[in-house]
Amino acid sequence: KIFITGALGQIGAELVMKMREIYGNSNVIATDIKIDKNHNVFQSGPFEILDVTDAKLMNELVTKYKPDTIIHLAALLSATAESKPLLAWNINMGGLVNALEVAKEHNCKFFTPSSIGAFGPSTPKENTPQDTLQRPTTMYGVNKVAGELLCDYYYHKYGVDTRGVRFPGLISYVALPGGGTTDYAVDIYYEALKSGKYTSNIAKGTYMDMMYMPDALNSIIDLMEADSSKLIHRNAFNVTSMSFDPEEIASEIKKHIPTFTIDYDVDPVKQAIAESWPNSIDPSSAIEEWGFKVKYDLPKMTTDMLQKLKEKGIGR
Ligand code: VAH
Question: Which residues form the NAD-dependent epimerase/dehydratase domain (predicted)?
């Protein structure tokens, strides 16, 4: 049984459905701070309201369902965290320590994502190594570095089988991301179909690692099913599929919509966050230790994203 927090979020909304396909609907317990009775996550299996800062309720729910694995996704993303730093600390760190404590008490395997946001301006920017300097300058980055260290601590001190990946920007057509610095790379596809043009809040020439959601979901499942004795690193593995700037994703879209145009109205907060992150990271440890692989590059992702969004009726 798998217990997932943040189940209605950008990753959760798809991970719940995929894990229910693989492990059985009743074996995947979805939780989130709000309820959406029309959501397929709510309708297809067990769902509970849970604010991850409520340690008592989290413990009661894990006692009730007795999962063997906890996937902790509930968090505030980078731009939101920068606008509400103390709230971000309380949710991102308070929620994580509650989830780790419950995993320890109930002997659960544990996954939570880190991010390329765990690196800072003094980190090597090209082909960023698995093991390197991590002095992020954002609250989100502080949360992610502290989270990586806390997950390693629970592994070394209490033997909790904690595992994580440093996700790049994730691009998906199911649930929108909220408050992320890489959200532009999702919004651009919607606008390409709706209005045929996009005003990017990230500047031309700003490179960030990205990954299509199907590859992200597979990386979580592959890591959680990997042989524990083969893992040298744990929290958290660099993973990436591609790195591009707004101009490159725009020109890929133009191959499908020749009249598409991009212009710029840079958001200084998001731009500063983006510039503090790597341009490209090195996923070789994930490849060596648990066979990380991806199916989608920018051309394949763009073809699939535009087709799936059209099927959803976007732009009609
Ligand atoms: C964000 N999408 O923008 C998240 C992610 C690497 C980016 O952490 O905050």
Answer: 2-226
Q: Is the pLDDT of residue 178 over 90?
A: no
Mean pLDDT, the chain, as a whole number?
Answer: 97
162 lines ligand 1 (CB under 6 A): no
Ordered DSSP codes for 32-55: ESS--TTSHHHHSS-EEE--TT-H
User: Quick check: CB of 278 below 6 Å from ligand 1?
Assistant: no
Distance from the CA of 180 to the center of ligand 1, in angstroms? 5
Please report the atom of ligand 1 found closest to the CA of residue 140.
Answer: 9
Q: Is the ipTM above a cut-off of 0.85?
A: yes
Residues paired with 199 in a beta bridge: 263
Of 65, 140, 154, 173, catalytic: 140
140 has catalytic annotation = yes
Distance 298 CA to ligand 1 centre (A): 18
How far does Cα 26 stand from its chain's mean position? 24
pLDDT band at 22 (very low <50, low <70, confident <90, very high): very high
Compute the distance between CA of residue 92 and CA of residue 253 in angstroms, rounded to an integer. 35
